């Protein structure tokens, strides 16, 4: 099973991704986690990423892509994986398709879109910020993140729709209800 999780920040990708990992026994590959692992392992790409991260900059696209490719080439990802946070745009999706071919792996099976309204996302993230004491998650910042998602990442729905791979799941309800909806469309 090779899944891409799509949805705005706060839609539940991380939570549902962890449940899917446990269910399918395949790794969840998050770009943030992969970057940190490459830095910790001291790989060439990890060293390049660390220099940028230490300077407070955004890690270059080619480094992120290289790190994802390194991760997808590892033995535990051969039988499948769940991608969270990559691809972020159509250009990265095209690179991912080529990368999987180069690695001799099948393409993406499904792009699971967790649909949650913008207002529900704002409510969730403000609630989470309050519970976790995160003062940086103000409503205007959250709305900006949603705006960036809609502009940059949402077009992936069209990209994967054209391939017949998008499955949209209502992302409102209990964790178990949402998880069961995902399982129903990924079989």
TrEMBL record:
UniProt KW keywords: ATP-binding, Cytoplasm, Kinase, Nucleotide biosynthesis, Nucleotide-binding, Transferase
Compartment(s) of residence: Cytoplasm
Principal location: cytoplasm
Keyword flag Magnesium: no
Region (NMP): 30-59
UniProt keyword Cytoplasm present: yes
GO BP term, pick one: AMP salvage
Protein origin, superkingdom: Bacteria
Reactions catalysed, as given in the entry: AMP + ATP = 2 ADP
Quaternary assembly: Monomer.
NCBIfam families linked to this entry: PRK00279.1-3, PRK14527.1, PRK14528.1, PRK14531.1, PRK14532.1
Domain remark from Swiss-Prot or TrEMBL: Consists of three domains, a large central CORE domain and two small peripheral domains, NMPbind and LID, which undergo movements during catalysis. The LID domain closes over the site of phosphoryl transfer upon ATP binding. Assembling and dissambling the active center during each catalytic cycle provides an effective means to prevent ATP hydrolysis.
Protein name, as recorded: Adenylate kinase
Gene name linked to the record: adk
